[in-house]
Design brief:
By secondary structure, the chain is of the alpha+beta class. Helices cover 31% and strands 36% of the residues. It is built from five helices and twelve strands. The strands form three sheets. A five-stranded antiparallel sheet has the order 2-3-7-4-5. The relative contact order is 0.18.
């Protein structure tokens, strides 16, 4: 299964023995974004009994692209809320997303097994309903190109879906390009030998 990302915020709701479970899926490309979502939901659902969550965030500052994961039961018995949510995120290989589940207690205790089922089912329902897209890893690279080959550069950028972020002019033309790692190999093989990679400026 390929990694996927959430395309837009989605909400869903499930009722289990009078308890309301409200699932909210939020795009979280950094821990700062996660904190903003959490603070906003704490205000919106200030009267709720529990605000549980789990997230999987890819650390873009790490060269190894390490995954940051965390979950919270927010007062529910240990392992009955955040962990089943995280298991659904991991099982579906969802990245850069936080899944919150708010609970309003309905007066009937569900027990540990019932809580695991209710939180897990809320997560599953949200994942099934929400819109997801493929997760793409991008590479940025400086290239040094002779002035006479700028037209060739323009042609290859269109063919291989390369975005030109910046360009500078000196002895050669320097291009900062951005493209997916999947497209990089084909693009690099098509580059003339007169083009050179530049580590940094």
């Amino acid at each position: 299964m390929s990694s996927r990302i959430l395309l837009k915020v989605h909400r869903t709701e499930l009722v289990e023995k009078n308890s309301r479970f409200i699932g909210i899926g939020c795009i979280s490309q950094s821990l700062i974004e996660f904190k903003h979502h959490k603070e906003a939901l704490e205000k919106e659902f200030s009267d709720a009994n529990h605000l549980t969550f789990a997230y999987r965030i890819l650390d873009s500052d790490s060269q190894s692209l390490s995954m940051q994961t965390r979950f919270s039961d927010d007062g529910e018995p240990s392992g009955t809320a955040g962990k089943p949510i995280l298991m659904h995120l991991e099982g579906n290989d969802l990245i850069n997303v936080t899944l919150f589940v708010v609970r309003y207690f309905g007066g009937i205790k569900l027990g540990a097994g019932g809580l695991v089922k209710a939180y897990g089912n809320t997560a599953r329902q949200l994942i099934q309903e929400a819109e997801w897209g493929p997760f793409v890893v991008y590479r940025e690279q400086w290239l040094s190109i002779p002035y006479s080959e700028q037209n060739r550069m323009e042609y290859l950028t269109k063919k291989y879906r390369v975005e030109i972020i910046d360009r500078q002019f000196s002895e050669h033309v320097l291009f900062l390009v951005k493209l997916s790692t999947d497209d990089w190999q084909a693009f690099s093989e098509a580059m003339p030998t007169s083009w050179t990679l530049v580590k940094s400026l």
